[in-house]
Design brief:
alpha+beta, five-stranded mixed β-sheet, 8 helices, 42% helix, globular
Length: 279
């Protein structure tokens, strides 16, 4: 098997530098247009147990936006990177503000940019980009009926499949398969609580803080689900969470029903539908 040098572990240049020393190094790099703090970094909420969260505006960043994980002063550090030439977040006013053209994956970066706190912004690029991000978020398209139907269909289907596996869970392999499915289907259901309600995905810490404040019943169910490894109990909790999550879009689909979508052909395949062919 071939080996690439890029796959070798490296000790980051910043791992033994203080945060202040790291900032000084970044300020000296002409590719760095602006540097901002995110999360608790630089606030009175930061503790010795906290990580660092940084946002960089950079020149000539080919990906447009992305995230990297590294170390600063021996602490895990998440770095959000946004190109200052990114058409969606351009700071020179050259690009029109058109929220409808934003890729879905870009909205987390727009939210991070709005919430960032500039600590190095010699040209005002970060402040200008923040203003644009704030304006973009005001015009972010809501979740349409079609997307809401997708959530309702897939989550209802997940509940049914998990229920089927549960009825066959005397088999060890099936029980293990159910346990693995329960992990990702429950996470999907909690994420959908935010998506269906047009709330931004701000990372699990902020999301759970918001859930606890806005919907303590669902938050308590999340805690209950996490506290048990019993697949039967987890299935019951999963159904309770789905009843809450899907309430704004009509609830869990009744048994033996589906939501037909425009590009589906199954309904047209019944006897007497479509073109008739001679045997």
């Amino acid at each position: 098997m071939s080996h690439s040098p890029e796959s070798d572990p490296v000790n980051p240049w910043s791992s033994r530098l203080s945060l202040a020393e790291t900032i000084t190094c970044l300020e000296a790099d002409d590719r760095v247009v602006a540097l901002c703090f995110l999360g608790s970094t630089g606030t009175d909420r930061w503790t010795e147990a906290s990580d660092y969260d940084l946002l960089l505006l950079m020149n000539d960043y080919p990906s447009g936006y992305g995230t990297e994980a590294t170390f600063v002063d021996g602490r895990i550090t998440d770095v959000v990177i946004i190109s200052s030439q990114n058409a969606s977040l351009a700071t020179d006013g050259g690009a029109s503000l058109d929220a409808s053209q934003m890729a879905e994956g870009a909205w987390s970066y727009v939210s991070w940019l709005r919430e960032s706190r500039p600590v190095y912004d010699p040209t005002g690029a970060a402040a200008a980009a923040q203003d644009r991000a704030t304006e973009l978020l005001r015009h972010r398209p809501g979740v349409g009926e079609a997307q809401q139907s997708v959530y309702r269909s897939f989550l209802s289907h997940d509940l049914r499949v998990n229920g089927t596996l549960l009825r066959r869970s005397d088999d060890r392999s099936t029980r293990a398969a159910l346990g693995m499915r329960q992990l990702h289907t429950f996470v999907s259901s909690v994420q959908a609580w935010f998506s269906i309600r047009d709330l931004p995905n701000e990372g699990w810490k902020k999301n759970m803080t918001r859930l606890a404040a806005d919907d303590p019943e669902t938050f308590a169910l999340v805690e209950e689900w996490l506290a048990t490894s019993d697949v039967e109990s987890r299935h019951v909790i999963f159904e309770k969470v789905l009843q809450i999550v899907l309430a704004p879009v009509g609830g869990i689909l009744p048994e033996d029903t589906v939501l037909a979508h425009a590009n589906e052909v199954w309904a047209s395949l019944s006897r007497g539908s479509g073109n008739q062919h001679s045997p």
